[in-house]
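Title: Prediction job returns without error message
Component: structure pipeline
Severity: low
Priority: P3
Assignee: unassigned

Description:
Job completed but the reporter wants confirmation the result is attached to the right record. Sequence as submitted:
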Amino acid sequence: MEPQLSHQVTDSVATVVIRHPAKRNAMTTAMWRALPPMLDALARDPGVRALVLTGEGGTFCAGADISTLQGSPEEAPALAVAAEEALAAFPKPTVAAVRGHCVGGGAQLAAACDLRLAEEGALFGVTPARLGVVYPASSTRRLVSLVGPATAKYLLFTAELIDARRALGTGLVDEVLPEGELDKRIAELTRVLVSRSQLTQAAAKEFADGRTDRAAHWTAQARGSGDTAEGVAAFLERRQPRFTWSVSTSG
């Protein structure tokens, strides 16, 4: 099978799959380039309310496919950062579903998701020190925001792998599931995500990521959306709310 990214949308959840089984789902230059436009199309799709990123089979992503980077060592980090930033900027909730190795560029992508759920046995590593690569400043700041400066330095300085339980303790992972339970938990979580107010989620994502210049924008969106009135009415009537505001159409 040719290395590729694929996606499907089911029940308002887009699932993006990293497929390169011959090299533990390592990302080629073509795959790095393909991710931002794929995410842009899914962000504009009103039928998508959440996104799951995962790898084919028993591995999330073992990093960059080094064999495809030999001719352009300067280009590779830029492509990875562009893909990472596109994922971080995706305006709807994103979840990394991690099995097996989540290393290098794979850890970069997982860190750019809003939430990370891992199966027991998963291994995480930030490994540029093995190659003499300077880890990008934006990626370093994102890692520090998740795990704190001490753990970020440990991961970056040593390039050693840590298991899912240790990753959970550092904040790199939000939940660890027994083997065979990850898909079920991802389905449960995404059902919750797509049932909630996309307005609340989009605003919270911007605020949590440190953006401070759009408070007035979100106040105006809330005023005109009808989501608050619907949420209150649904609560009083003991029913599920029918939220209608969509980031795909409202910006």
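Comment from assignee: result matches the submitted record. The mean pLDDT is 93.
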